[in-house]
């Protein structure tokens, strides 16, 4: 039985943590980044610098919280059943990143194939905010599925970003953080500062960050509004840093046929075709036909593959 999430209608105005936040967001704009002008120039400059430093062109790192830590995010692209439907042109890009092999110990999936898709990133962790990415490992233990210790490879001092960048030597970082920041009052200010520091930690290594907006939070009106404000901060930082922006929030809200808005009943996490109990809880996340694309994780996977494909074809990455 499907449980429906009522995301409600935007309020007229709301004051949170001493400030007035926008209560809705326009559905205009582009989901995929504009790879031209200053953005293209900066991507190419970082990519060429990374190449001279020995960064790996066929390797990317994931940076984020539970929505990026779950196996439903891209892991099926590296190992598992794929149904590209009418998107078969993406096969070349999938094969490119599958060829960037990592040690098999770096994946939890039964196929024991290590690549950027299957990698259980040291820079992703459930229940954490943007501050965690800048904190020294090991992280303090938490409860339930949140208690995910750092990979055993992270034996040197440093932050999650330090560890993952050192282990993978990636040329690219897919960054989606902020969902848990939207759970606290007064979060947008500290979040923006943290995001700028995250970008600096990556670009100082010549890694190209691609920023993503977060999915809607529908678990409370206050968190919905905080999520909107955090997304505005992400868009602003991407503009000012001249970095690519992938607008997942816009993609989810623009489609009228999403199942439960693309979210689980908790109003926080992306849902997936087939549920989490299928194929070591990756679900049928790489089924990218019309039915699959009514689910949040499936849609994000398709759009991320399209993003990687555009970067491959249009930049020096």
Q: Which residue ranges are poorly predicted, with pLDDT under 50 across at least 5 consecutive positions?
A: 1-20
Number of helices: 9
Helix content: 25-40%
**Beginning-to-end CA distance, first to last residue:** 44 Å
Number of strands: 6
> Taking Cα atoms only, what radius of gyration do you get, to the nearest Å?
18 Å
Largest sheet: 4 strands, parallel
Helix-strand makeup class: alpha/beta
Q: What global shape is seen?
A: globular
> How much strand?
5-15%
H/E series, N to C? EEHEHHHHEHEHEHH
* Strand order across the largest sheet: 3-4-5-6
Mean pLDDT: 87
Task: Explain what the structure shows.
The protein is globular. Helices cover 33% and strands 9% of the residues. Helix 6 packs parallel to helix 7. It has a four-stranded parallel β-sheet. It has a two-stranded antiparallel ribbon with strand order 1-2. With 317 residues, the protein is an alpha/beta fold. Helix 7 links the parallel strand 5 and strand 6.
